[in-house]
Design goal:
Number of helices: 6
CATH superfamily of the largest domain: Pseudouridine synthase
Number of domains: 3
Strand order of the largest sheet: 11-15-14-12-13
Radius of gyration: 20 Å
Mean pLDDT: 91
Helix content: 10-25%
Largest sheet: 5 strands, antiparallel
CATH topology of the largest domain: Pseudouridine synthase
CATH class of the largest domain: Alpha Beta
Low-confidence stretches: none
Number of strands: 15
Distance between the termini: 27 Å
Strand content: 25-35%
């Protein structure tokens, strides 16, 4: 059993996000199974839902320590003397304590990510194995010489097979939420999201998209697609 206390930074966040702050390698299915079995207590009350927690709340987690502290299950796709390409699993940060980068650092003298993807996103992450390689790769990203593409399955059949979407995004750090607007407002930053429809399934009303970001803001893809009425399947 683990005893935890919600801190000020975690105030008004959902339970799963707080638990992943404490246990970055905790698998999603393990967490939700524990909820279904009521193996998690908040303020001495067993719960079965992903509730909002507040500063000072006490959390008791009845999950095996091995499952809480398990190492990230990543795979190396490519490696040479200069770069490393890793297939990042979901539910792990690229940087930070108990992150993908910290795991790689245990076996390498120098390893730095050239970009990041969201915690719940799985996919390829490019790492540099020297300061020189890092400088070159960051410069190529800056000059749009390297493109990042994402795949997402969304609800709905989009009206056009290809589009370039523009909007404005605001990130509320206190609530850990982002907001989208079609007009410029104070604190909002411009975002550009392009997509191509790869596949449509009219029987279950879903589409698979190839997505390219001209800007890279927090939760841009999920927020922008939800804003136009085509949310990513499984997004919370």
């Amino acid at each position: 059993m683990k005893n935890l206390v919600v801190n000020e930074k975690q105030n008004n966040q959902k339970l799963d996000k707080v638990l992943w702050d404490f246990f970055p390698n905790l698998k999603q299915n393990t967490l939700y199974k524990a909820l279904r079995k009521k193996d998690i207590c908040i303020n001495e009350k067993r719960i079965s839902e992903n509730v909002i927690v507040h500063t000072g709340d006490t959390i008791k987690v009845f999950i095996n320590d091995e499952l809480l502290e398990s190492s990230p299950n990543y795979s190396i796709v490519y490696e040479d003397d200069f770069i490393l390409v890793v297939n990042k699993p979901s539910n792990i940060e690229v940087v930070g304590d108990n992150s993908l980068t910290s795991s790689l650092e245990k076996e390498r003298k120098f390893i730095k990510p050239c970009h990041r993807i969201d915690r719940n996103t799985l996919g390829l992450v490019l790492f540099a194995k020297s300061e020189e390689a890092l400088t070159i790769l960051l410069d190529k990203f800056k000059n749009k010489e390297i493109e990042k593409h994402y795949r997402a399955t969304v609800y709905g059949i989009l009206p056009t097979k290809k589009d370039r979407l523009e909007a404005y995004l605001f990130k509320d750090n206190k609530k850990s939420l982002v907001y989208i607007s079609n007009i410029q407002k104070k604190g909002y930053q411009k975002i550009i999201t392009s997509y191509n429809v790869i596949q449509e399934n009219r029987n279950n009303n879903t589409s698979i998209l190839d997505i390219n970001l001209e800007t890279g803001k927090t939760h841009q893809i999920r927020a922008h697609l939800a804003y136009i009425g085509y949310p990513i399947i499984g997004d919370r």
